Amino acid sequence: MKTLFEQAVRILSLGIGLLVASLNVHADAAHKLQEKLENISSYKATFSQDIRDEFNTVLDSSSGYFELQRPKQFRWVVEDPYEQEIIADGESLWQFDSDIEQINVSELDASLETTPAAIFTKDQVDTVDNYNVAEIATSSENTLLFQLSSKAEDALFERLLMEFNGDNLIALQVSDNLGQTTSIEFSDISLSPDFEEGHFSFEPPEGIDVIDNREKVADNAKDKP
Question: Which long-range contacts (CB under 8 A, 24 or more apart) does 140-146 make?
Answer without folding.
Answer: 140/165, 142/166, 144/32, 144/36, 146/29, 146/32, 146/33
